[in-house]
Amino acid sequence: MVSTPASSPFARASALLKSGAPATFTSSDSVLVSSSQATPILLSLLIVATSYLAWQLFAPVKNARIKGSSIRTLAASIPRLGQVAFYRTRESFLYRVLGRPEGALDAQAYHPSAVRFNVSQHNIIVSGDHQDASTFFNTRALSFTKGYSVLFGGTPKDPDTEPEVAARNRAQDDKYMVFFDKNLKQAIRGERLADLTPDMVEDCLKDYEHFFANNTGNGKLDPHMDVYPLIFQLSVRTVGLAEHANSAAAAREMYDAYWSIERETNYWSTLWPNLPLRSNHKRKENSKKLFTMIHEAINKRIEDKRSEDDQVQRMIDDETSTIDIVRWCVGSLFAAVVNSSSMSAWLLIFVGAQPELRQRVKQEIVETLRKGAEERGDDYESLPTLEALRRVPLEQWEGTASSVADRKNGGGAFPLLHACLKETMRHVLRGTFFRYFAGQNESDKFANSKVQIGGHDVNSGDFLAYWIAGTHQNSRIYRDPQRFDPDRFAIRKEGNGPLEFIGWGASHHVCGGRRFAQLEIIIVVATFLMCFDYETVDLQGKPYSAETCPSADTDNNWRGPSKPVRLSYRRAADFKA
Ligand code: HEM
């Protein structure tokens, strides 16, 4: 059950509504309407407004209960608001209603049978049962696009072109999705990534150099505040405009607008975006700023008859409409930044909390660089660190090949680092994936399809959510799931069964940016380890251990730490300028 405190945004909104009404009639209008006449008018307006509000809040939600279904239904204290906690404190809400997957070996502790509830006028079935994963990922009748566009609310819409985009029909929408995927594939195709890789290494090193310069090579950094801007810059370089990637000031301005939008994404901005709330206003303001920056930069490039080496240029050359190019850039940035930023920061945090593991990862990187140098005929000892890293070829970063001999033995480069990334994803990705089942409401080929969750029919018009922790924190799949232990992947091969690791999604909607995401995170972390020796500490500098290390607060997109965390660093003894 959810109760709304008096200071809730809704209470503030209705207060605003009420306080706004008299002001409309008391200034120049007083000449036309005397105060004794105004009182009954005001009173009537107030009654109308209050009745409207009450109707909005307490009106029954369509299909909130399904007769004959044994899927548990959760009722909300204010029906139209529904389960606000699903947005505000998702993780604890799901633990409360579905149980603890870490205790899955104990049948009493984990009973993940699906639950159904509403948020605003939308009904959602949430399942954390690994048995339902296959239905969720493999059923074509479930719409990924509608699931996210209604329930996720992260990606902003351009306030100026929204009506035009909204007026497009489903066929036009599908066409846009094909355009989106095609351009993302081109933006991160192998030959482009191979060209970008040395620049990405250089971006990282330049960024880390300011820690050398600011201090004497020692200090404490905040992994979220200091790593997120770097990931943003790498993302802009890959799916944004060269003009922005090459200007620190422009990249920073975009970064501030981007994160302000992410931080203001909540229940209200997702489901009641037109309420006059501060967060809705800030989101719209920053969305406009972001769209305008990209729009103006494209126009300027066209006006100046300049050409740049980025995906946007390809679209300009193909005479794509500027609205679609801007929409593609913003959509790609919102798909790219949030997960890659938090995975990079958390990988550094988790590895830094286990000195022995950090040493093993560092050793793996040095050995790979040394071997690569020897194979190329370079003298590793005299190579500056930047050059040793810049010369690592794409396939080695990707872990797909190290040397011919290793490939024959089935080995690849950086296996432990890749296992650390996978383990970080397993820890940090604990939210939900979304889908929508149109069923009979659809006029297309899926109109007669049936979908079952937990053995029960899903209603046409219901949304589905799959709880990732039901798989990633499940003790039937992962031994001691709360422990950060990359050897579960590197050595013990846990999570190798079907849909046991879903960090990149699965089936029809596997992550479209995986190749780039993996590459940038591995580069950011490997470069960091080549620059610094470090450990994960609290604000007083006391080292955290595997047992005491904070975890990610997954209730917001920033994914900050459950308690303060810093990386205490010093220039690596083997760093070569
Ligand atoms: C560590 C970073 C990342 C993680 C963990 C991640 C994870 C995921 C997951 C789990 C999905 C599937 C969601 C579902 O089935 O509901 C997904 C989809 C997607 N991701 Fe990523 N992602 C990451 C980075 C990126 C980047 C950098 C890009 C773009 C450059 C990107 C673009 C996309 C796109 C376009 C889709 C939708 C695919 C479709 O519609 O079929 N992702 N991602």
UniProtKB/TrEMBL annotation:
Name its co-factor(s): heme
- The domain of life is Eukaryota
Instruction: Output the InterPro entries linked to this UniProt entry.
Output: CYP450_sterol_14alpha_dmase (IPR050529), Cyt_P450 (IPR001128), Cyt_P450_E_grp-I (IPR002401), Cyt_P450_sf (IPR036396)
Matches recorded under CDD domains: cytochrome_P450
GO function terms (MF aspect): heme binding; iron ion binding; monooxygenase activity; oxidoreductase activity, acting on paired donors, with incorporation or reduction of molecular oxygen
Which keywords describe this protein according to UniProt? Answer: Heme, Iron, Metal-binding
- UniProt-listed Pfam families: p450
Q: Which SUPFAM superfamilies match?
A: Cytochrome P450 (SSF48264)
Protein residues bound to heme: C511
State the family it belongs to: Belongs to the cytochrome P450 family.
- Know the name of this protein? Cytochrome P450
